């Protein structure tokens, strides 16, 4: 697994520090609100688990599972909802938790879909932002790191369902996906 990585972009320590910092900021911003954290599976599972434990105000959590990349490195443009949320969102302050904002197609679709459900507010927290690839008009409200236009894996992010369990974020060697 490690020999498919060209470069470690973000170490475990760098990620942990930044996630704690973001947790404190979100805790300040959501004091007195009805925070509902929505994790967009599968990629956000690791970030969600760490971020929710860095938040000190009361919150609910729920999960939705969507997919648009399949086994490629470019968005198919078709966002498939594999599992929708279970909880009624009326009056809740939604924080959508994503691992990466890349083309923006996934979050554009999800925010539009969820804004029809009577939420009090919707914000986006993403671990990584790759602005050079943006195709849909979207900016995150909270972001831990901006990354260059390279395919990254680890800390939940996959290529063809692999590498999610790497504890750091690494750039995948292009020969892994150009073969
Ligand atoms: O901004 P975009 O170009 O839409 O890319 C971002 C989305 O792509 C990845 O999901 P993917 O479809 O790979 O599903 P996964 O989370 O199960 O890996 C990632 O987890 C984001 O949800
Ligand atoms: O760079 C990426 N890596 C893994 N999954 C992704 N989904 C969008 N961009 C990426
Ligand atoms: Mg993926």
UniProtKB/TrEMBL annotation:
It is found in: Cytoplasm. Keywords: Cytoplasm, Glycosyltransferase, Magnesium, Metal-binding, Nucleotide-binding, Purine salvage, Transferase. Its cofactor is Mg(2+). It is an enzyme of class 2 (transferase). One of its GO terms (molecular function) is magnesium ion binding. Transmembrane segments: none annotated. The keyword Glycosyltransferase applies. The keyword Nucleus does not apply. Pfam families: Pribosyltran. Pathway: Purine metabolism; GMP biosynthesis via salvage pathway; GMP from guanine: step 1/1; Purine metabolism; IMP biosynthesis via salvage pathway; IMP from hypoxanthine: step 1/1. GO terms for biological process: GMP salvage; guanine salvage; hypoxanthine metabolic process; IMP salvage; purine ribonucleoside salvage. Coiled coil: none annotated. Residues 10-159 form the Phosphoribosyltransferase domain. Its EC number is 2.4.2.8. Purine salvage pathway enzyme that catalyzes the transfer of the ribosyl-5-phosphate group from 5-phospho-alpha-D-ribose 1-diphosphate (PRPP) to the N9 position of the 6-oxopurines hypoxanthine and guanine to form the corresponding ribonucleotides IMP (inosine 5'-monophosphate) and GMP (guanosine 5'-monophosphate), with the release of PPi. Belongs to the purine/pyrimidine phosphoribosyltransferase family. This is Hypoxanthine phosphoribosyltransferase. It comes from Fumia xinanensis. The lineage of its organism: Bacteria, Bacillati, Bacillota, Clostridia, Eubacteriales.
């Amino acid at each position: 697994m490690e020999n498919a990585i060209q470069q470690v972009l973000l170490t475990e320590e760098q990620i942990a520090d930044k996630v704690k910092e973001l947790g404190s900021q979100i805790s300040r911003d959501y004091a007195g609100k009805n925070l509902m954290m929505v994790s967009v599976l599968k990629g956000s599972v690791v970030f969600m688990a760490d971020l929710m434990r860095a938040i000190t105000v009361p919150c609910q959590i729920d999960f939705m599972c969507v997919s648009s990349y399949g086994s490629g490195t470019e968005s198919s443009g078709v966002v498939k909802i594999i599992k929708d949320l279970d909880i009624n969102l009326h009056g809740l302050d939604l924080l959508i938790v994503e691992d990466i904002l890349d083309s923006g197609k996934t979050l554009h679709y999800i925010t539009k879909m969820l804004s029809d459900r009577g939420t009090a507010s919707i914000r986006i927290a993403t671990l990584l932002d790759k602005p050079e690839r943006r195709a849909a008009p979207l900016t995150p409200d909270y972001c831990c790191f901006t990354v260059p236009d390279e395919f990254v894996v680890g800390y939940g992010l996959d290529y063809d369902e692999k590498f999610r369990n790497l504890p750091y974020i690494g750039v995948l060697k292009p020969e892994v996906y150009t073969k």
